[in-house]
Design goal:
The chain has 20 helices and 23 strands. The protein is an alpha/beta fold and about 675 residues long. The protein folds into four domains: about 70-235, Flavodoxin domain (Rossmann fold); about 275-325 and about 455-520, Translation factors (Elongation Factor Tu (Ef-tu), domain 3); about 330-455, NADPH-cytochrome p450 Reductase, Chain A, domain 3, CATH 1.20.990.10; about 530-680, Nucleotide-binding domain of ferredoxin-NADP reductase (FNR) module (Rossmann fold). It is globular. Keywords: Endoplasmic reticulum, FAD, Flavoprotein, FMN, Membrane, NADP, Oxidoreductase, Transmembrane, Transmembrane helix.
């Protein structure tokens, strides 16, 4: 090889020169080889000597490995548990259901524990049969487009790759999903099917909860049939009625160092004062609001554009990702709860888990004040679930109110109907229930134990990191509506965001946030055409996409057709980002801008109608141009109508039957050419 010092022979070289060259070459080669062999031998000799001089140490295998903290089996044995309820939870509901099931177990002479699969080694499932009358229950929520929740991702990956023998495992699954989504309850269905494939024994049928209907009722219905099946399988009987068992005990701190008290942090104490990356759900970054402007020119709604400064945070994002923000409850709601319960909200307290072996020491960061808990940690605006009503009933001094609460928490048809109408459909939150039941005065610490955690809110990022590396943009509509009881309910996060104005009088508005990665991505090749469909605030990720395509074009890249289908109610009222879109169109980045104004004429016009109008061009882009399709916005109606429109277009121009067209679109989804970022 030339690289090793063997020059190529020139055929025109004179013979004598060639011979001399060869002699020289061989002598050089001899020297090189002898040097190489000598060097290798010397290196081996000294290396071998060094190894011999190293004293013999005990081998790692000979040291008994300590019991891993991640073994839920060892923990169950140590604490006398025989039922473990794993939860895959993104918004806290699956975790709440898991806690309720684990508490139920004591009624049957069994002991349960709720467990986060992220904290344990799930390969230990094969050992669960070592425990008598053992059972694994899985409350699994589906996130996004059939994805596992963040905390169940490792479990999902393990299930896909596992070849474990789970023949001794007994299990049951309750899935939490939403029928408006394409992949309804995909995670629950997969876990149920996969566990059976690995040899596990299903002791009760898969439960499918639908959040688009009445998730609470679905859970109660499944649960009231699940426990009799457990009793029959293990030959046990209920030991009594459901009873109120406190999980946490109250400790009031009268003399406490305020530097040790949580004031709204999600994880580490003082993390908002001393920010350290990396930033995530347990360690959010406090981003400064640099812009907050109203987007719409008229109408009753308030649509807004916010910009969050992420300079020096080391946060990286891509177009299509989601930003999660932690909101705060309205202080007037918090104060009213305090007044009704006659509590000093500034009392500093801790709620400590009575189960000392539990990984969850407190229901929220403690010590803290009741005011902080009700403002930053607890959900006080959503209608409470039936288990909360059941626990609260004991604190109603009026027999009629107590009976009403117990009835709504029961599994009787009449009780379910009453809960649906009086709580769910009337959108009564905990404050409204306390107001409408004057004799109900629960201790505030028990109320704080019962209320679910206030969750982060996710928004599609409305910017490109190529153009705005130090800023994340949000597009949102303020939620506000009147309930059947005449109350004005306001969305927690959007009303809180509305109040976040850029720096004024030296004080800045800060938003705790982090970025959640998404699969909603522009094509790898910029030359690939894209069709984007996003009415209303569904336009958010497409502002980022268009910014990125414009940036790529400026870099000299060949950028394919960029087509947008956008919709709003009225052209003169809520046409979002009108000027920006006009600019992108003028620059030639946005090659097609199709806007549906639904209420500017007698007959309503939506994005799917414009797709039908341009069906030939749409088919050409998809079929010949290999375009990628993106849909963002309402899952319940818009996303479904748009998908049906694509079925029609594919059927007509692809000469396919309806089932073939459906299969064609489903294959586009599988290949990543039809992507959804939708909500209901």
């Amino acid at each position: 090889l030339t690289a090793m010092g063997e020059p190529s022979m020139d055929p025109t070289m004179p013979a004598a020169d060639s011979t001399a060259q060869q002699d020289s070459l061989f002598s050089m080669m001899d020297v090189f080889l002898i040097s190489l062999i000598t060097g290798l031998f010397t290196y081996w000799f000294f290396f071998r000597k060094k190894k011999e001089e190293v004293p013999d140490l005990p081998k790692m295998q000979s040291v008994a490995a300590p019991v891993r903290d991640s073994s839920f089996i060892e923990k169950m044995k140590k604490t006398g548990r025989n039922i473990v309820v794993f939860y895959g939870s993104q918004t806290g509901t699956a975790e709440e259901f898991a806690n309720r099931l684990s508490k139920d177990a004591h009624r049957y002479g069994l002991r349960g524990m709720a467990a986060d699969p992220e904290e344990y080694d799930l390969s230990d499932l094969s050992r669960l049969s070592e425990i008598d009358k053992s059972l694994a229950v899985f409350c699994m929520a589906t996130y996004g487009e059939g994805d596992p929740t963040d905390n169940a991702q490792d479990f999902y990956d393990w299930l896909q790759e596992a070849d474990a023998d789970l023949s001794g495992l007994r299990f049951a699954v309750f899935g939490l999903g939403n029928k408006t989504y394409e992949h309804f309850n995909a995670m629950g269905k997969y876990v149920d099917k996969r566990l059976e494939e690995l040899g596990a024994q299903r002791i009760f049928e898969l439960g499918l909860g639908d959040d688009d209907g009445n998730l609470e009722e679905d859970f109660i219905t499944w649960r009231e049939q699940f426990w009799p099946a457990v009793c029959e399988h293990f030959g046990v009987e209920a030991t009594g009625e459901e009873s109120s068992i406190r999980q946490y005990e109250l400790v009031v701190h009268t003399d406490v160092n305020m530097n040790k008290v949580y004031t709204g942090e999600m994880g580490r104490l003082k993390s908002y004062e001393n920010q350290k990356p990396p930033f995530d759900a347990k360690n959010p970054f406090l981003a400064q609001v640099t812009e907050n402007r109203k987007l719409n020119e008229g109408g009753e709604r308030h649509l807004m554009h916010l910009e969050l400064d992420i300079s020096n945070s080391k946060i990286r994002y891509e177009s299509g990702d989601h930003v999660a923000v932690y909101p705060a409850n309205d202080s007037s709601l918090v104060n009213q709860i305090g007044e009704i319960l006659g509590t000093d909200l500034d009392t500093v307290m801790s709620l400590n888990n009575l189960d000392e072996e539990s990984n969850k020491k407190h229901p929220f960061p403690c010590p803290t004040s009741y005011r902080t808990a009700l403002t930053y940690y607890l959900d006080i605006t959503n209608p409470p679930r039936t288990n909360v009503l059941y626990e609260l009933a004991q604190y109603a001094s009026d027999a009629g109110e107590q009976e009403r609460l117990r009835k709504m928490a029961s599994s009787a048809a009449e009780g379910k109907a009453l809960y649906l109408s009086w709580v769910v459909e009337a959108r009564r939150n905990i404050l409204a229930i306390l107001q409408d039941m004057p004799s109900l005065h629960p201790p505030i610490d028990h109320l704080c134990e019962l209320l679910p955690r206030l969750q982060a809110r996710y928004y599609s990022i409305a910017s490109s990191s190529k153009v705005h590396p130090n800023s994340i943009h949000i597009c949102a509509v303020m939620v506000e509506y009147e309930t059947k009881t005449g109350r004005l309910n306001k969305g927690v996060a959007t009303n809180w965001l509305k109040s976040k104005v850029p720096e004024q009088n030296g004080s800045s508005s800060l938003v705790p946030m982090y970025v959640r990665k998404s699969q909603f991505r522009l094509p790898f090749k910029p030359s690939t055409p894209v069709i984007m469909i996003g009415p209303g605030t569904g336009i958010a990720p497409f502002i980022g996409f268009i910014q990125e395509r414009a940036w790529l074009k400026q870099q000299g890249k060949e950028v394919g057709e960029t087509v947008l289908y956008y919709g709003c109610r009225h052209e003169r009222e809520d046409y979002l980002y009108r000027e920006e879109l006009a600019h992108f169109q003028k620059e030639g980045v946005l090659t097609q801008l199709n806007v549906a104004f639904s209420r500017d004429q007698a007959e309503k016009v939506y994005v799917q109608h414009l797709l039908k109008k341009n069906k030939e061009n749409v088919w050409k882009l998809v079929n010949e141009g290999m375009a990628h399709i993106y849909v963002c916005g309402d899952a319940r109606n818009m996303a479904r109508d748009v998908q049906n429109t694509f079925y029609e277009i594919v059927s007509e121009f692809g000469n396919m039957s309806q089932p073939q067209a459906v299969d064609y679109v489903k294959k586009l989804m599988t290949k990543g050419r039809y992507s959804l970022d939708v909500w209901s």
